[in-house]
Structure formats: structure tokens, C-alpha cells
Specification:
Layout: H1 2-8, H2 13-26, H3 37-42, E1 44-47, E2 55-58, H4 81-88, H5 114-117, H6 127-132, H7 135-138, H8 143-147, H9 177-184, H10 194-198, H11 204-214, H12 221-226, H13 245-251, H14 253-265, H15 279-288, H16 295-318, H17 325-342, H18 345-350
Antiparallel strand pairs: 1-2
This protein binds zinc ion (ZN).
The site of zinc ion has 7 residues, from loops.
InterPro entries: RVT-Znf (IPR026960)
Pfam families: zf-RVT
Protein name: Reverse transcriptase zinc-binding domain-containing protein
């Protein structure tokens, strides 16, 4: 008892040094270190076995209960949260008369504390009350409800007023599906080429193909290899490098020939020596070269050409048949007429139709 009462006082420096020197003599093992008044108040040091050669800071009476015979149980000793958690984790409380169990902090509800079950509620309780409210007090006349301050304590019932809900994503506070949809889109990554795909005329399956191709989601060899699937070693069109979506559509010499023939036939001036990495970039660069009235028609022709390159690739892979560039361009020309007949008016403008 005297020792702990001394610890609670602000000892002069000479007294701390004196006590520390006695401690060092009594405990020869382990790492020697000076002890300050704060440490003396906040923890009790124990010597570990020689093979561990160190010290552990025991949290003292706040981590686990001590019997009334333990003098330090009366002291308010500061304990680091990490150390407190170390001792709290394996401890559960079984409530008897509820006098020693802390209502807010101890784990007395099936091994969990109120702080574990309702972490947002705990900040509304004053720390002094949280540390001192025993279960037997809290459950008497529902005293724990009064412990909660802040927003909960300011509620006054208004019998003549109906409950309402305010939706903070609209100016008038009323819910709208539009605002909810916009909230769901917050923080999304945008795809710059989306308008070129979805606002140009093309059959839906072709738009979907380009949507996937621009996002490198078509099943080219590189993607199949990444998933551990069987795939051709080299590009099926040029047999030179590994097949990727960007190579197939932009960099492949065979594809370039088809692009060149098709765009030349449609009098769309394209540049094939631009330094681009992706389909999307290349498409954007070529579109910029087109005069305004021709851009929508060019976009349709672009998708039609890319679609036929992909189809030729698939025929070579699955049917083991290969067509030359001239034959593929002829197929594109034939399909241009079909697309114009089906409603691709802007594509028709490219050919004066
Ligand atoms: Zn190739």
C-alpha cells in the first residue's frame, strides 16, 4: 500500500532516482532502463525470462479486475489503448450483482461490450460516466438512457406534427430517383469514348463489341493467357507478335491495310503514322481529322471496319480459313450498302447517298 500511494504523488527527482536504483539492484535480468514518474504511475514492470531478455509493461488494475486486497486497484492508472486491448480481448465478464461491471465498457453482453455493439452511441456518453457507471446502476430505472447526451437528449416530441424524411441529395429535401441514380454514379471512372460508340449508328452487337474492345475486354490471346486459357501464340492476321486488342485493331499491319483501303475508298483522310497506344486514342485522332458533317458517318464506318477485322480473326481461329485484305474490304463495301439501307444515313452521306 505505501508503495502505491507514493507512486500516486508527484515525487521529487531524487526520490525517483533512488527508487530506480533499488529496482535495478533487485531485478538484475533484462534490459536496464531508467524509470520516470510517469512510467511508475502508468505501469508496473515485470522481468521476463532470460531467453526473452526484456521487459513488458503490464497495464495493471485497469485491464483486469483485482481483488480488493490489491492496493493499486484504487489508482487511476493510464494504460495505452493497445495494451488495454491485449488484456480485454481474452476477458469476458459474467454479471453477478452488477456492482463491479462497467455498463458501457465491460464485455458483459455475450462477450461483447456496449462499445462493441454500438460504437456510434458511446461518444454520446460522458467519459466520466462511461468509466464509472456500473451495470447495477445503469439498469436501475433505466439510468443508462440518461447517460446518453448530445443529439438524443434534445428530442422533443411534437404530437401534432407527422414524422418526415429529408433527402439531402435534392434541394427541396424530397427523394427523387434521378438524384439517387446520380449519387450511385459519384466517384465513377469515366470512359471518354463512350459517346462515339453509343451515339453513332451501328447494330447493337457491333457497339457492344467496340465497347469491350476499347476497354481491352475482348478475348484476344493476351487476355486468354492471363486467365490460363489456351490461345494462339501470335496474331492470327500477321503472325508477328502476341495478339492484343490494341494490336489487332491499331498496330497490326494486316489490319492497317484494311483500314487504309476502306478509309481511302470513303475519302476519309486518315493518318497511320500517329503515335497512339489504344483503339480509343487512334479512333479519336482519326475522327478529329474528319470535317464536322462527316464525323458521324466516319464513326459508323470505323466500327464496321473494326467489326470485320474481328470477324476475320475469328474465322481464322475457329474455321481455319483465311481471306485476303481485298476480299475483306469487299465484304465491308457490301455491308456499307446494307447498313445505309437499314438506316445509317450519316454513313450514306460519306458516299453522297
Ligand atoms: Zn497482327
Amino acid at each position: 500500500m505505501p508503495t502505491y500511494l507514493i507512486m500516486a504523488d508527484q515525487l521529487p527527482a531524487w526520490a525517483i532516482e533512488e527508487i530506480d536504483s533499488i529496482r535495478k539492484k533487485e531485478v538484475p535480468l533484462g534490459r536496464q532502463r531508467p524509470i520516470g514518474s510517469r512510467q511508475m504511475l502508468s505501469s508496473v514492470d515485470y522481468c521476463l525470462p532470460p531467453d526473452t531478455a526484456g521487459w513488458i509493461r503490464h497495464p495493471g488494475p485497469q485491464a483486469i479486475w483485482n481483488g480488493p486486497s490489491r492496493a493499486r486497484s484504487a489508482l487511476q492508472i493510464k494504460v495505452e489503448p493497445e495494451v488495454q486491448a491485449l488484456f480485454d480481448a481474452p476477458s469476458t465478464v459474467h454479471v453477478g450483482n452488477g456492482e463491479k461491471t462497467m455498463f458501457w465498457m465491460d464485455k458483459w453482453l455475450d462477450g461483447q461490450s456496449i462499445a462493441d455493439l454500438a460504437p456510434s452511441l458511446v461518444p454520446l456518453v460522458a467519459k466520466r460516466i462511461m468509466r464509472s457507471r456500473a451495470v447495477c446502476q445503469a439498469l436501475t430505472a433505466r439510468l443508462w438512457v440518461r447517460d446518453i447526451s448530445g443529439a438524443l437528449s434534445g428530442i422533443q416530441l411534437q404530437p401534432d406534427l407527422e414524422d418526415t424524411v429529408r433527402w439531402k441529395w435534392t434541394g427541396d429535401g424530397c427523394y427523387s430517383a434521378k438524384s439517387a441514380y446520380q449519387v450511385l454514379q459519384l466517384g465513377r471512372t469515366t470512359f471518354q469514348g463512350a459517346d462515339r460508340i453509343w451515339k453513332s449508328w451501328a447494330p447493337l452487337r457491333v457497339k457492344l463489341f467496340f465497347w469491350l474492345a476499347c476497354r481491352r475486354r475482348i478475348w484476344t490471346a493476351d487476355r486468354r493467357h492471363r486467365r490460363g486459357l489456351e490461345a494462339p501464340e501470335a496474331c492470327l492476321l500477321c503472325d508477328q507478335v502476341e495478339e492484343t486488342a490494341d494490336h489487332l485493331m491499331v498496330h497490326c499491319p494486316f489490319s492497317k491495310e484494311i483500314w487504309w483501303r476502306t478509309t481511302s475508298w470513303a475519302h476519309c483522310g486518315c493518318q497511320f503514322n500517329v503515335d497512339v497506344d489504344s483503339i480509343q486514342e487512334w479512333w479519336e485522332e482519326q475522327q478529329k481529322l474528319q470535317p464536322g458533317p462527316k464525323r458521324k458517318g466516319f464513326n459508323t464506318l470505323f466500327m464496321l471496319t473494326g467489326w470485320h477485322i474481328w470477324k476475320e480473326r475469328n474465322v481464322r481461329l475457329f474455321n481455319r480459313q483465311a481471306a485476303g485484305a481485298s476480299e475483306i474490304v469487299q465484304r465491308i463495301k457490301d455491308e456499307v450498302d446494307l447498313w445505309i439501307a437499314a438506316g445509317a444515313r450519316k454513313l450514306g452521306c460519306l458516299f453522297g447517298k
